[in-house]
Amino acid sequence: MLFHTYTFLIFSTILFAALAVFRGFTQRKIVLLAASYVFYMWWNPAFGALVAVSTLVDYAIGLALNRTDEPRKRKALVAISVSAQLGLLMYFKYAGFLAENLFVISRLLGFEGPAPTFNITLPIGISFYTFATLSYSIDIYRKQIPATRSLLDFALFIIFFPHLIAGPIVRAAQLIPQLERPARLTINPSILFLFLGGLIKKTLVADNVAVMADAVYANPEQWPSAMIWLATIAFAVQIYCDFSGYSDMAIAIARALGYELPVNFRHPYFAINPSDFWRRWHITLSLWLKDYLYIPLGGNRHGTLRTYANLTLTMLLGGLWHGASWNFALWGLWHGLLLVAHRAYRQIRERWLGPLQEQSSFLSRTAAKLLMQYCVLISWIMFRVPDAEKMLIALRKFVFFDMNFSLAGIGAGSLFIFSTTLLLSGFAALHFWSYKHNGLHACLARMPLKTTMAACAAAGLALILLWPLQEAPFIYFQF
To answer: Is the pLDDT confidence value at 443 over 80?
Structure first.
């Protein structure tokens, strides 16, 4: 079920009506739990059982961890939790990938045999709720939180529908305490504008600029460097608007229901270095990787080379979290190397020139932002193009500009190029304005009524005129 469909409009209307009728504290949570299962099973009813099993396993393990202080038992219990959850994730998401690569290796070693065939349907959102359940068990093991005794609260924490499919990745310490107290339904201008902004990002921007990226990346060898650049920028805007648009709508829906989800994006295309980028892009994932992978690996506590290795491995695994494909691994490795290069640069500069100054000139900060976004655009080519040969062609044309600006042979496509460029320019202007005013939705909510009504009318007209002809799932649904 997609947030930007009539089906979800009917679903949410029925849900809010039911919550208005059932005003009891526990009753409302039962309604939310039932609605969340309906929301999830709308795509494939069978996978509701998978979420239920994951929920019951970690609920029982959490209670068992609460009852014992014996180190060996606690290690065994958390090992069972991690093995069970990662085992399901590995089977559904990576079994085919691993079998295919083992088959290739066996062929290289001279072994003969039939190619493996897998027909495994990936449960939607499995990467997100697996990380939620893992963090719960690990946090209890670390004695950072107590286990909840309420199965209802824990089940709702796992399957709460706004964040279930594509995040933000929510931890128990963030949501379960909110579930333990009465929530109040709230509709205000800030929530409405946040949801409307997410809707516009998805339908008006992401789904429309996606056509350009899809057309160029399908056959990058046929296009000049200028078109590779345009397609890469289009995909950068597409994935940001698609993913942050979902997060905005999810946070808005949760707020309307009386709950607060963590922020997932803070204008990442204004980042000045790789570390800053990951403090702005998919924040809940980068924090999860830091707390549950990078720090347990040793973080920066065991020397420079070990730190570099930990950064690289963390980002490599973070890339593979996105999907069972080598292009995602390459994307993660690239970002890991960027983090290593930035850390090495800081260490060398501080050794020879002293501590870095927090304030720097406008030109140096602008140059840093442009360099960072150039590196990010390179990474998006790796992310977007799974075919190795086509990826290399696109990367070569992106890096080594051929100065070919001819539109010969494009024909009617030139009008489409113009409309895509116009959309990208409009996004850039609004994104800059939002960056300067610390969020577009909050700024609109504070404006005079006439201004907000005019903005809503303009947004409504734009949605009517530019609504995509086909429904497009959110990109991160596949992860």
So the answer is: no
Q: Is 322 a catalytic residue?
A: yes
Whether 318 and 290 have beta carbons less than 8 Å apart is answered as no
Sign for the CA dihedral angle at 324, 327, 331, 334 comes to: positive
Count Cβ atoms below 10 Å from residue 83 Cβ, excluding itself: 11
Which amino acid appears at position 408 of this protein? A
Ranges of H-type helices in 147-186:
151-159, 161-164, 172-179
Smallest CA-to-CA distance from 380 within 276, 271, 233, 251 is with: 233
Q: Please tell me the distance from the alpha carbon of residue 58 to that of residue 318, in angstroms, as a whole number.
A: 23
Q: To the nearest whole percent, how much of the chain has pLDDT over 90?
A: 58
Q: Which of 207, 120, 288 is nearest to 469 (CA)?
A: 207
The mean pLDDT of 79-90, rounded to a whole number, is: 92
Q: Are the beta carbons of 180 and 61 closer than 8 angstroms?
A: no
For residues 342 and 272, the answer to whether their CB atoms sit within 8 Å is no
Q: Tell me the two tokens of residue 342.
A: 């930035």
Structural contact between residues 61 and 137, judged by C-beta atoms closer than 8 angstroms: yes
Give CA–CA dist 20/425, Å, rounded. 43
Name the pLDDT band for 361 (thresholds 50, 70, 90).
Answer: confident
Tell me what the mean pLDDT of segment 85-112 comes to. 82
Q: What is the pTM of this model?
A: 0.90
Kindly write down the DSSP assignment for every residue of 394-408, as one continuous string. HHHHHHS-------T
Catalytic residue among 4, 163, 282, 322: 322
